[in-house]
Amino acid sequence: MRKITLNGAWSLFKKGDDTPIAATVPGCVHTDLLANSLLEDPFYRANELQQMWIGETDWRYTRSFIISADILAHDRVLLRFHGLDTLATVRVNGIEVGHAENMFRSWEFDIKSVLRLGENSLEVDLAAPMPYMRRMDAEKGAMAGWVEPMRISTGAWLRKEPCNFGWDWGPKMVTSGIWRDVEIMAFNTARLHDLFILQDHAPNQVTLNLQATVEGVDTKSLSIEVGVSFKGKRVAQSEAAVQNDTVQLTLPVAEPELWFPNNMGAQPLYDLEVTLYDQQGNALDTQTRRMGLRTLTLERHHDAWGESFYFACNGVPFFAKGANWIPPSPYPGQTSPAELEGLIRAAADANMNMLRVWGGGFYESDIFYDLCDQYGITIWQDFMFACGTYPSRDEAFVANVMAEVQENVRRIRHHACIALWCGNNEIEQGLSHPDWLATMSWEEYSHLFDTLLGDQVRELAPQT
User: Fold this and answer.
1) 4: burial class by Cβ within 10 Å (0-12, 13-18, 19+)?
2) Distance between CA 332 and CA 103 in Å, rounded?
3) Is the Cα dihedral 382, 383, 384, 390 positive or negative?
């Protein structure tokens, strides 16, 4: 697997204006305008009112990149965006290669057929969110939601960070941009598609049950090698041939050091490395996971007062102490690893052991969950639905949501910190209002949050 980063310097254009603006990816229109002194600080006095036009405007990001003969010789060449905000059309060398309509997931486009040796061009057109949402409300019907000063009433049709549109605690800054990494990936034969790891705990041993899924033009005669290391020492390993695009392996770890939440014990982390080989022994792809060995359960049992509701880690009950995690910045993806670590370390220093990733923001970055593993901060993870009704019977909307949910559950399920998945923020409360029930019945609510999302968690992350 060869990777070429496309992070860094891009050019930004406002629709109808051919004047380039120096831009940085990952980033967004707001940060690029601020960096070029084309926007006043939105947090100063009433300047929030002066930047509303950004969400009403179409934008284009462009850059060029070089492709060598070595890259073109690969079987497949993909363009991967780890985050597009939000309504994007992507062109390579003037040829449209794909669309995006969800901020919460990654997007991959096969670009080999449109590449050329040497210099290539890349354009990302971003449609304005506000006109799109008004059009969808007019065409399909407006959904209900809490209305705060400076906030639009509903953004249900667009899978975008809800608090972008204003909240009771923050400003309305409707962003557009390429908010996470961009890269080109070239590979031959096959690549690792997914790793699914379950833990089986017994006295003095934890067995890791791994299922690896392989994707490619030819998955025959391939094999996988897996190693587990702790503090640089190999403690378990196994290998097997790929059969029907999958491999299942068991890796017993003797005398394991168990992971505990903050102030309950240590946070030892094990490194798992999975490598895919072809018949000649050439490494085709490698993926790694850092994980803690633990059980983490929500204990719900009938008792004298009704039903218990508490967490237990490795069989030890604990009182969940923590806070609500909202996006640290109004500009998605602009919080540095050092800033994230400072905030999570502060939570640990305050004797917290849980943060709830709020459903009005976005699924956090990999480094966020890595840091929570490191500091012993467990995570109550909301799905990204908040304070409004949603069209749970609309097929296109549901398909978009299912792709988002499946990707994010798979992406973070291996983390020791993940304690619980929650369907949404405050929607049950809102359904006590007649105007909400007029747009989403209790049956439709249950269909989306209990059945569709619940089924995904039960299938993809059965140990959380």
Assistant:
1) middle
2) 10
3) negative
Distances (CA, A) of 265 to 240, 321, 378: 35, 16, 13
Contact predicate 121/6, CB 8 Å: no
* Dihedral of the alpha carbons of 421, 182, 84, 213, in degrees to the nearest 10: -40
CA 446, CA 449: separation in Å to the nearest integer?
Answer: 5
Which residue carries 């109550």 as its tokens? 380
C-alpha span between 429 and 387 (Å, rounded): 9
d(CA 271, CA 292): 9
Q: Which residue from 123, 128, 122 is spatially nearest to 160, judged by alpha carbons? A: 128
DSSP 164: G
Looking at residue 48, the DSSP 8-state letter turns out to be G
Distance CA(88)–CA(158), nearest Å, equals: 12
Q: To which residue do tokens 């290669």 refer?
A: 97
Q: For residues 128 and 176, is the Cβ–Cβ distance under 8 A?
A: yes
DSSP, res 451: I
pLDDT in tens, 186-228: 999 999 999 999 999 999 999 999 999 999 877 788 999 999 9
In which band, very low, low, confident or very high, does the pLDDT at 152 lie, cut at 50, 70 and 90?
Answer: low
β 354-357/322-325 pair status: parallel
- State whether residue 428 is helix, strand or coil: helix
Q: State whether residue 430 is helix, strand or coil.
A: helix
CA angle at residue 414 from 409 to 416, to 5 degrees?
120
**Dihedral of the alpha carbons of 184, 189, 192, 194, in degrees to the nearest 10:** 100
Peptide bond into 203 cis (omega under 30): no
CB 188 within 8 Å of CB 74:
yes
Amino acid found at 448: L
207: preceding bond cis by omega (within 30 degrees) = no
Copy the structure tokens of residue 239: 């290998």
- The pLDDT of 100-105, averaged and rounded, is 98
User: Which residues share a beta bridge with 272?
Assistant: 228, 289
Give all domains of the chain, ordered by start, each with its CATH number: 2-185 (2.60.120.260), 190-291 (2.60.40.10), 320-460 (3.20.20.80)
Give the mean pLDDT of 324-350.
97
> Which amino acids are annotated catalytic?
426
Quick one: tokens of 74?
């690969």
Q: Is the model's pLDDT at 153 over the cut of 60? A: no
**What burial letters (b/e) apply to 81-117, b meaning 16+ CB within 10 Å?**
bbbbbbbbebbbeeeebbebbbbbbbbebebeebbee
d(CA 351, CA 377): 10
